[in-house]
Amino acid sequence: MTQETKNCQNCKNDFVIEPEDFKFYDKIKVPAPTFCPECRTKRRLIWRNERTLYKRDCGLCGNSMISMYNPNSRYIVYCHKCYESDRWDPMSYGRDIDPTKPFFEQLNNLFLAAPKRNLHIGTPTKDTQYTNFSGENKNCYLIFNSGASEDCYYSRGLRICRGTFDTYYATGAENCYESININKSYGLRFSQNTSDSVDSWFLLNCSNCQNCFGCVNLRNKQYHYFNEQFSKEEYENKVKEFQGSYSKLQEMIKLFNKHSLKFPRRENNN
């Protein structure tokens, strides 16, 4: 079997199917795909809607609620209180299998008949309405796939965090902002793949650092500015030069991105 270029039925873009792919499809006895890889991924991910929220009415009590299901969808959706209550019979939508009808058609009809929970939120949760796939949070807003956090906003993948904003994946973070994959840290800004660090800006792949700025691959360091050692006074003066200015902050982001390319990186961050 040779390489073949096909046109995606969904987005109409061309995509390539390699000979190894055809061998795999033949092995599991399925036809070659008609959707490109990206559209196939989107079709799989549509089963888990985390961050798109809608306003609709509960299908049981009629009260207005926030839901991950579009109000135009055909699903029956209950608010959290009704879904957890004994006001409806879970056997009411049960049905026998009809061997004369297609299986997936019957499964789809079951999906449409079975009530859905408006949001996947665990308890206890307080003052945290606009979240999804989360639990045991307090006073949080627009956080997703997160738990046991407090006073956190606009983030995903938080666990046991406090006062953290605009962050993607963090455990044990406090007072952190605009960071990715951080662990057990306090006061990090614009940092990534960093753990056990305090009061630092623009760190990448660092551990156990304190009062460091624009540094990559450091371990157990303090008062480093762009990977160079300075005294406490020298360090604080350099950091003050850009603080309080949005334009200087944007310049610093570009400067750090260029600086970080000078250093080797791990092959992955599993």
Concise overview:
With 270 residues, this protein is α/β, with parallel strands linked by helices. 21% of the residues lie in helices and 23% in strands.
Descriptive report:
With 270 residues, the protein is an alpha/beta fold. 21% of the residues lie in helices and 23% in strands. It is built from six helices and 16 strands. It has helices at 19-27, 37-45, 80-83, 103-113, 232-240, 246-260, and strands at residues 4-7, 14-17, 54-57, 64-67, 77-78, 116-117, 141-144, 153-159, 168-171, 180-183, 186-189, 192-195, 198-204, 213-216, 224-225, 228-229. The strands form six sheets. The protein has a five-stranded parallel sheet, with no helix packed on it. A hairpin with a 6-residue loop joins strand 3 and strand 4. The radius of gyration is 25 Å and the shape is flat. It starts with a strand and ends in a 10-residue tail after the last helix.
Q: How large, in whole angstroms, is the Cα Rg?
A: 25 Å
Order of strands, widest sheet: 7-8-9-10-12
Counting helices, strands and paired strands, the structural category is alpha/beta
The 3D shape can be described as flat
* N- and C-termini, Cα separation: 36 Å
Task: Please give a handful of descriptors for the protein shown.
270 residues, three-stranded parallel β-sheet, single chain, alpha/beta, five-stranded parallel β-sheet
